[in-house]
Specification:
Strand order of the largest sheet: 2-1-3-5-6-4
Mean pLDDT: 96
Bound molecules: 2'-monophosphoadenosine-5'-diphosphate
Structural class: alpha/beta
Distance between the termini: 32 Å
Radius of gyration: 19 Å
Low-confidence stretches: none
Shape: globular
Strand content: 15-25%
Length: 276
């Protein structure tokens, strides 16, 4: 029986087991997917002996994504771009690493807001952490010519501009609304809006009516940012789809079936979120 897991510290909050166990059941695969709580000092040793622990691979959540990246023998471009990995698998005795957040975000955006890039405007990104890096990489690969990054700590946004090159433009945090009005997509990658923590305070007045507003926060499912965008008639993309789609490549690597993100699976997660 093939086994995979999610490693984190803490890891109790992870919804990955809900997703992967749904797929294992749906496809009739005799496999298992569990949560493994691992302290930072235990990561390197655990990953070296993943096989001995009985795992074919794992997902990685905070705070271990950088350590997982460092531990891998083979790193996909998606992981190299972000210097962090959320998906690991063994192949030919080597530990492979990918960052599937880029795939998850871009796939969900394409499915939920088809034609998001039709008007060729810039993309606006709020935040400059690991999630911002994964998403910026996706937009660059998709051919977006200008990506404006706004972060409370400006130096972190400038570091991203250095890493990703001249298509990245850094703006002041205070300018996040005014300088995003012509954007084709605005994405919140900060933790603001999660469980009622703070407000981004953007009311979307004077925004291009074709602007798509996306939030990677999915608790609550409808964040204040998304609610405000809808009030102005803008298309919105929630954070749950990114979580669901980022899980697809890992499941395929471990269990050999490319799984489908279904409405039933989404509803399972929605119910879990609503239940706290
Ligand atoms: P992740 O890897 O999940 O993106 P992170 O690296 O901790 O997480 O980044 C969190 C992001 O949320 C950062 O851009 C952070 O801004 P700073 O770089 O200034 O810390 C942003 N963030 C978190 N709380 C915020 C707040 N109250 N106001 C503005 N930005 C905030």
């Amino acid at each position: 029986m093939k086994r995979a897991c999610v490693i984190g510290w803490p890891v109790a909050h992870s919804r990955s087991p809900l997703i992967h166990n749904y797929w294992l059941k749906k496809y009739g695969i005799a496999g298992a997917y569990t949560k493994e709580a691992l302290r930072p000092e235990a990561i390197a040793g655990f990953l070296k002996s993943l096989d001995a622990h009985g795992f074919v691979g794992c997902n990685v959540t905070v705070p271990h994504k950088e350590a997982a990246f460092a531990a891998a023998d083979v790193k996909e471009d998606s992981a190299l771009a972000v210097s962090a990995a959320n998906t690991l698998w063994l192949d030919g005795g080597k530990l492979h690493a990918a960052n599937t957040d880029t795939y998850g975000f871009m796939t969900h955006l394409g499915l939920s807001a088809p034609g998001w890039n039709t008007h060729k405007g810039p993309v606006a990104i709020l935040g400059a952490g690991g999630a911002a890096r994964a998403i910026i990489f996706g937009f660059l690969e998709a051919g977006v010519e200008e990506i404006r990054v706004f972060n409370r700590t400006r130096a972190r946004a400038e570091a991203l501009a250095l890493q990703f090159g001249p298509r990245i433009k850094v703006g002041d945090w205070a300018e996040r609304a005014g300088a995003s009005r012509d954007a084709c997509v605005l994405v919140n990658t900060t933790s603001i809006g999660m469980g009622g923590q703070g407000t981004l305070n953007i009311d979307f007045e004077h925004f291009d009516p074709a602007c798509v507003v996306s939030d990677i926060v999915y608790v609550p499912l409808e964040t204040e940012l998304l609610a405000r965008a809808q009030t102005r008639g803008l298309r919105t993309v929630d954070g749950l789809g990114m979580l669901l789609h980022q899980a697809v490549p890992g499941f395929e690597k471990w269990f050999g079936v490319r799984p489908e993100v279904t409405e039933e699976l989404r509803n399972l997660l929605v119910a879990d979120i609503a239940g706290g």
